Amino acid sequence: MKDSNIQSCHLGPEISPESLIQEHYFLYLLKGSMKAYDGHKNYEINPGDCYLARKNHLVRYTKLRDNGSFEKIIITFDEPFLQEFFHRHTYPVQAPKTQDAFLSIEQNKLIKNYIQSLSPYYSGDQQLDETFASIKREELLLILLKSAPDLANIFFNFGMPHKAELETYMNRNFRFNISLKRFAYLTGRSLSSFKRDFQKTFDIQPGQWLKKKRLDEAYFQISQNNHKPSDVYIEVGFEDFSHFSFAFKKKFGKSPSALLPITKA
């Protein structure tokens, strides 16, 4: 598709690294399936499912092909578009009631007809020019707000993330390998305030706490659940396996693989 705010995706990486959702987007799955995790909740998305992915949420996801195929439609609602829309339309806005990264959208006739109207574009038969793409985005936004008025609390909340309770947030999201600056923003703080509040809460510097927390989680997953070290290191927030192995042995006095049960030939 020509317009980057309405696009179809056929392949792409099957296992994602940590990802911060930069803008709200509407997701409709055509073929294949997805499994996603946002730090506290797992999601399974199947063909025909509609979801709203929420801005400023951390996620990790896996794409599963069906007979070699994976296709989805993504329609992005970036902040300038939403602000311009909100300027022309009046919707009451309150604090969101949920912190889930993905919100399931119940399909109705309006949504089904809308998806059907995009068929010539996501099938590749035609290109969608920028002007028409903006109209189709606004049409979808109106349909979603008519179908679920509470979504206004999500779409039109233009402030920075609220100041999160630090202990709860970090214990939920320590597995995501993002910078301290990003953690600070997502918890509603400047970097200096984040470091200061973190020290008061945990009595340790954030970098040291993250390393310890991730290694302890890896130890548990390997020793108690028999997970392979090569699978665990990314899941707990390490980028490099050799660095993970070195840090693990330094902390626990043995390599990660030494915790696995010995299999008899």
UniProtKB/TrEMBL annotation:
The organism's place on the tree of life at top rank: Bacteria
Coiled coil (residue ranges): none
SMART domains associated with the record: HTH_ARAC
All residue ranges annotated as the HTH araC/xylS-type domain in the record: 164-262
UniProt cross-references to InterPro entries, sorted A to Z: AraC_XylS_family_regulators, ExsA-like_N, Homeodomain-like_sf, HTH-like, HTH_AraC
Keyword list, A-Z: DNA-binding, Transcription, Transcription regulation
Keyword Transcription among UniProt keywords: yes
Protein name, UniProt field: Helix-turn-helix transcriptional regulator
Organism this protein belongs to: Pedobacter fastidiosus
